[in-house]
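The instructor's notes for this session suggest beginning with a concrete chain rather than abstract definitions. Hand out the sequence below and ask the class to guess, before any prediction is shown, which regions might be ordered.
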Amino acid sequence: MLVVIRFVFPWAVFAIMEFRNYPLSYRFSQRSMALAFALMISQVGIIPLPQNAQVVVGVTIYLIAGISLCVSFYVIVRYPLLSLFEPSGGDQFMKYFASSGGRVYKILKIAALAAVLIVIISMLLDGKNNLQESLKLVYFVAMFGCLLFMTFIYKPASHPAVATFIRATLGVGLLVFPIFIPALIVGSIRYKRLLANASIDYG
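After discussion, reveal the predicted structure:
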């Protein structure tokens, strides 16, 4: 079991697994999110569609992305260790996203932190106390905490459940990070249990 070897020897090189051998749910999550991206990009710079067609395309994009995110919940809880494997072809995230420079990601994270902080401050200064605004404020505060974690604490090798979440959603899941916190907690607990069991079996 390559996974067990990776657990017992955490300094070892990531195991390599062909993308076609990844769980169907993971592959579906990635490819459906890629399809949603493709549909979204196809609407930029093309002859404007009739309003009804735009509504249909918009609903289709959100539906596909929503299904992908829902499947990702299952992937994170069931397979929190997939990020410990290095895919050998076919993985959309590794092919198109992970190859980008780390400096660019760091700049984007800091920019996102600043943007969310500005939103929080503006909402506090606005002074609205209705339920809807309160829920928005709670969400953005949670998002700010998640972005702090991603910017200053997160490391793929130390947080495999989070890394799996990012790869399964092509990074789009970060836009709704707070919603995934329960699944990430459960996935992280499963990861630690598997690690403990592997250490006992091979210790």
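Then share the key points. Confidence is low (pLDDT under 50) at residues 1-14. Residues 129 and 138 are 12 Å apart (CA to CA).
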